[in-house]
Amino acid sequence: MKKQIEKLIFNTCKKLGYQIDSADVSFSKLPDICDYQSNICFALAKKVGKAPFLVAQEIVQNIQKNDDFDFVPAMPGYINIVVKNSTFSQLANQLLNDKKSGVEEQEKKLNVVMDYGGANVAKELHVGHLCSPIIGESMKRLYKLLGHNVVSDAHLGDWGLQMGLTILQLKEDGYLDYYFSGKGEEPQISFDLLNVCYPKASARKSVDPDFKKMADDFTKYIQDKQEPYFTIYKKIRAMSVKTIERLYQELGATFDVWYGESSCADTTNFIVDMFVQKGLARESEGALVVDVAREGEHIPLPKQSEDEEQRYKNPMPPAVIKKYNGADLYATTDIATIYMRNQEFNTPDEIVYFTDNRQSLHFEQVFRCCKLVGISPENQKLIHIGFGTMKGKDGKPFKTREGTTVKLEDVINLLIEKSSEKLQSNGLTPTRELALQIGIGAMKYGALSNYVSKDYVFDLDRFLCFDGKTGPYIQYMIARINSILSKSQEEIGEILVREKEEKQILVDILKLNASYYQCFQEKSMNSLCASVFDLASSFSTFYNNHKILTEQNEQKRKSYLALITLVRNVLKQALWTLGIESPERM
Predict the structure, then answer these.
(1) pTM here?
(2) Segments of 245-286 assigned E as strands
């Protein structure tokens, strides 16, 4: 519809001899007056030396006659466009019969690998692991809705220092005697045990250089597949992955492949050799580094004194690709992973990563390394989507009362508990499945409503409201439509748009469909969240102002039923894209 309007205005300007690049048509900010507006006359007025309103009058007077739209000049120089009811009716029925409710697939189909999840093996998932699977899953679904081919990878952190630290601490605490001395029975390593050992080891490495050195050595033994280190590693990994899969499943995050840093372990030496052979790597304090700074990014600032530490303008430090002891680092495995993905998935058009903002420098270094050495071709997009931090109501990072990090499993249980209480207060007897759907949906909508790079407040009481801008509100509107259609037991008819509430619903559907493309461009789902709420609100207004089931006029009643069926389809598709389930009843 927007394209039709733009074409009519563009052709009229061309006929009048006005040179424009586009008609600049947008949804109206004054919905009681018109449905669309164009402000092209302000730019044209400067070029031709006329008042904007006179230019608007001239364009409207010369526009091609049509049966779909009314064009009206408006002070001080807008062109207002009113969509006729017959046009809205025709559009509504087209959308009702379209599998994607009018969302068009993009012309150029992309092959994309998305890397989200990123849970660390040997460490229990905590609240900080929420955003990556929530944002990544929704972005994957958006890409697929728009016709792109996406492979999703959980990409586990399973090859770094945390493995060496954990196994060293387990050994020192006497849990691994079976492997190292053959004494006793094979130990059952659990998360409860790891939750004690890993924090102890992590704190100890900061104050005990010998312990840190030994942990580095253990990490290298694992990467070299030495026994019994590698066997212990595999057991810890298998136990961790089982729990991670279950928690991601509860969050509604799905993955095509469950690779990790270890998946490219056999490639890292080859990758490092590429940098060495091309003269891109140099030694620094026993480690191998790659200079990735570009001109003007690493300019030394004059020292105020000889003792002052050297400072830099816009510093871009070198990427470290081998540790002093020859062990791999995150940069090494991330570079090797991009190489592996290009081999396995036929050089995707895009590789997209979802982590918090604090890793932006790491990924910029990795991406530059890949471009420098030729692992990533020039036309391949390597994208890092950095998200903000989840905070409590006090504005500080979300923690327990004791100040410890909240476990992800505890968050999920809390969501189930709170949503169950909410359902009970509304007179419903909740099942665990329904409580999970509503609780997870509430949390996801709260997180995705925020612009992706900004911090947001984790406020369960606000997220779980059944009215207001929340996930449960939209889920409830879908359940309400389901109830109406279930009671009706009548076939739907043709949609005939007559009244302003019906018209507003169609405008909001068009806005919602447009928001998919905005989310794709911005790589943030907040526009879709806002649009789906607006449509749910428009349906609520329509529902409150019209008696659907008791409408005496059969044609009207069947039209109403068809219209709310369309609303349900559009709302469900939007929630699906956000990774939120739509319960049949609430």
Answers:
(1) 0.90
(2) 281-284
